[in-house]
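Predict the 3D structure for this chain.
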Amino acid sequence: MRIENHPILEFKRTKKVKFYFDGKEVWGYEGESIAAALHALGIWEYREGLKTKRPRGLFCAIGHCSSCLMEVNGVPNTRICVTPVKEGIIVKKQLPKGDLVEKL
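Done. Predicted structure below.
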């Protein structure tokens, strides 16, 4: 669900683009945050907690916490609440934390 009308803010929609989330083709508006696009599609679980293994989603939504860390185009620990959607990007859940070293 996206906010379409707001008494103070204005939301300009840009080009609709496809990207991939955990191997599935999804869409968002170019330039909106990945988190906003996933949230609008009803996807609210982005990773799992390191100790508890419980699902994590948005918390601050302004890039200060680490609740929304995901792997974007192979780069782990990307804060998707401040990372814009682009055509063809590949987004994956982190289970439970990202690793820069590719496992063989």
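The beta strands are 16-21, 24-29, 47-48, 55-56, 69-72, 75-79, 90-92.
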